[in-house]
Amino acid sequence: MISSLNQPVVNLNGSDVFRPLPSLPTSRRLSVLPPLPALSTRRCSTVFSLSKPLFVSKIESLEGTLKRSSSVVCEAYEADKSAQIEASEGRSETARKVKIGVYFAIWWSLNVIFNIYNKKVLNAYPFPWLTSTLSLAAGSLIMLISWALRIAETPNTDLDFWKALFPVAVAHTIGHVAATVSMSKVAVSFTHIIKSGEPAFSVLVSRFLLGETFPVPVYLSLLPIIGGCALAAVTELNFNMVGFMGAMISNLAFVFRNIFSKRGMKGKSVSGMNYYACLSIMSLLILTPFAIAVEGPQMWALGWEKAISQIGPQLIWWMAAQSVFYHLYNQVSYMSLDEISPLTFSIGNTMKRISVIVSSIIIFHTPVQPVNALGAAIAILGTFLYSQAKQ
């Protein structure tokens, strides 16, 4: 602490600077501190006390004062820097939200286009096993070309990766074929209404096979899902048991696909786009021999002649479109999953089904009874409530 500071003050003008000071006693001279370092000219004052020298009781106090003074400047600088960082983070978060919104819009649009062309192909050329195979073949070819031309980064995989991917590919293949078989027998809207019951299968499989338990709201959310699907199925004008069972098997298969995927991909550093590409390639290898055994080239050739005579060459465009758009919408959905939480993905998947159901009803002029529409709405609402309760 600085003592004896109330002192007479004089201005530094003229010869006052050279006025001799009175001699000090020896004891006082010894207590005077060495001169402090010269301060910046901006900080120096032109007024000094010349009558008596200044005395400092503790040098630590002065050092503490100087340290506190310098820390204020540092904190002010850091505050400015943090403000810049916060502004930069705000811009990056906004860009991320825009990116997710674009992903969702592309995802839903591609899914709607795929379902429209897929139904057109199946109505004219009812061979779901071949149609499913062509979808996987188109996606595999697209990604192989992308890797060869370095348009997409080649995934770094090993034998363990493909071993872990195998059960995922088996479940994905079954789910894909079952859904295509369902769409070949019933309306697109009906297939997607039944497929909205997938959360019920997820809870039941996780509970009875994996021993997982869920909060009470999760179990309660299954009631509108199951009730809505049942109401929609009972009131469906064009009900078909094969189509209904295909959608149900697809639900069960995709639940196992998700379970195997979480286990197999734990710790793997493969992007969502490349992961789905590898999944398509392995599923294609699994599906091709079964498609040949179930339907076969002879049936495909006879069906092709009949379809071309009725539809014309545009059937080729329909088949190409449904194959390409199937891969693209799945690829974008996996890319979206890289950027968002599972809750957001579940909500997006629910909204996707709504867009597909509504668009297919409008395009194909599917007759819908009010009770049937009510059942679909209840099932979709239950799916939304499930996604909320699960998180």
Automatic annotation (TrEMBL):
Transmembrane annotation, as ranges: 100-117, 129-149, 216-235, 241-260, 272-291
NCBIfam families in UniProt: tpt
Lineage: superkingdom: Eukaryota
Keywords on record: Chloroplast, Membrane, Plastid, Transit peptide, Transmembrane, Transmembrane helix, Transport
Subcellular location: Plastid, Chloroplast membrane
Annotated ranges, domain Sugar phosphate transporter: 99-387
GO cellular component assignments: chloroplast membrane
Protein name per the record: Sugar phosphate transporter domain-containing protein
Record has Nucleus as a keyword: no
InterPro entries xref list: EmrE-like, Sugar_P_trans_dom, Tpt_PEP_transl, TPT_transporter
Keyword Ribonucleoprotein attributed: no
Topological category with respect to the lipid bilayer: Multi-pass membrane protein
PANTHER family: SOLUTE CARRIER FAMILY 35 (PTHR11132)
Record-level Gene Ontology MF annotations: organophosphate ester transmembrane transporter activity; phosphoglycerate transmembrane transporter activity
